[in-house]
Amino acid sequence: MKSTRIQQGFTLIELMIVVAIIGILAAVALPAYKQYTTKARFSEVIAATGGFKTGVETCAQTGSCLTAGAIAGLVAGAGDIPAAPVANNHVASVAISDTGTITGTATNNNGLGNQTYILVPTLTAGGQVTWTSNTGSCFTATPKIC
Length: 146
What we know:
By secondary structure, the protein is of the alpha+beta class.
């Protein structure tokens, strides 16, 4: 009668293969994770511009900030425009120009490096505002975070 030997446990080679696979996956996943967390932090800067966008759109529709058919005379904290938000871990500042251009600036920590997010309004017929947001250093950052 032939005796059969029952294998118990893994061989050293099998364990080394598993460790190598885990190392390769970690080498690929960690840089991607860092990029995702940086984008998530910068999304707070983008969200901080929301109140300003609403204020510009409201004053354009009511006509309270129009001069000669263009947006003009806007000041943070006056009329429909909110006051500048308090700086926090990710948002250094949000500012608005008198023509409605909104600039959000990130802090210089937690993977952020003072990147800016700029929104430029264009007034269309009927008092509607369209926004152009393809400028700012967040678009040229490596990797792009907005």
